[in-house]
Write a structure and sequence with these properties.
Layout lengths: L3 E5 L2 H9 L4 E3 L6 H6 L7 E5 L7 E2 L4 E5 L4 H5 L8 H5 L4 H6 L2 H4 L8 H8 L3 E6 L2 E6 H6 L8 E8 L7 E7 L7 E8 L2 E2 L2 E2 L3 E5 L6 E2 L1 H7 L6 H10 L14 H17 L3
Parallel strand pairs: 1-3, 2-3
Antiparallel strand pairs: 4-5, 5-8, 6-7, 6-8, 9-10, 10-13, 11-12, 13-14
């Protein structure tokens, strides 16, 4: 089936093309769309591209960090101001994938991929989108819950509050093939501290549900407490609550449930 490629200079035009054609998909780095086309996905008849430089902009000034949807993992790894995101960026594929894959595209990556999105969920990111109803900002958790209905929406950027302390953010990916294999599970946590108490704990899990999710029971176990051994044990014990992993060639649902508490404990303890 022939595929039409449409390239626009502005995001407005690209968004209009996407929202008016249900068979259109946006092409950023191509790690998802080109794979679908190469595997014979006949639901895609139009590929939309945009050359707007805003999509590849990184803004680390002020109290918030904004990553254009077209920012690649290689760009993140080259930016010293984004050092706390180097671990999730480095955990995705090999150099070729990191040179092409984008933070916007990762929002749509199915399990066992989407590792960078787990980090964004832990950081309480907001997704800027443009569609038939204009531009709007959507909390990342809400975006992920409606991800299957976002095909006609153009993601413009992802933004989040700059961590006051880079050490408050933690990330861990468990894969059988390191560093580029599909994830068995992925974990990220943001643990801001006021005095000696955690205030605003966020823990995110990948490959533990159809999309990345927050581990709310673990968050409750951490909130308002010092990060000591008993708190870590309580959070780890609660990690599996509310999860719904599935069986795959990489790991069974049973195995994922068995190991998530182990690796959350290691993440919170600062173990490698």
């Amino acid at each position: 089936m022939p595929v039409t490629v449409k390239t626009f200079t502005s995001t407005n035009e690209a968004a209009a093309a996407l929202s008016s054609d249900r068979s259109a998909r946006y092409l950023g780095g191509g790690t998802l769309v080109m794979r679908a086309l190469n595997e014979g996905d006949i639901s895609i008849s139009t590929v939309v591209r945009a050359s707007d430089h805003a999509l590849t902009r990184i803004d680390t000034g002020g109290s918030r960090i904004t990553l254009g949807a077209g920012v690649t993992y290689a760009r993140i790894l080259a930016d010293r101001d984004l050092g706390f995101l180097h671990a999730p960026a480095r955990s995705i594929g090999g150099p070729a994938v990191r040179n092409m894959g984008t933070v916007g595209g990762n929002l749509f990556a199915p399990n066992p991929y989407g590792d960078f999105t787990v980090a964004m969920l832990a950081l309480d990111a907001v997704v800027s989108v443009q569609g038939g109803l204009g531009s709007r900002e959507v909390p990342i958790e809400e975006f992920l819950q409606s991800r299957d209905r976002q095909a006609g929406t153009l993601v413009l950027a992802i933004s989040f509050a700059k961590p006051g302390n880079a050490e408050a953010f933690r990330y861990r990916k468990i894969a059988r093939i390191k560093p580029k294999g599909g994830a068995v599970i992925t974990l990220a946590a943001y643990l801001p501290v006021n005095g000696s108490r955690i205030v605003g704990a966020r823990v995110a899990l990948g490959s533990m549900a159809p999309t990345p999710i927050r581990a709310r029971a673990a968050e409750r176990a951490l909130e308002g407490r010092s990060l000591d051994a008993s708190t870590i044990d309580a959070a780890a014990a609660a990690a599996v609550e509310g999860t719904s992993p599935s069986d795959s060639a990489i790991a069974s649902a049973w195995y994922r449930r068995e190991i998530v508490s182990v690796h959350l404990k290691r993440l919170l303890s600062g173990q490698e």
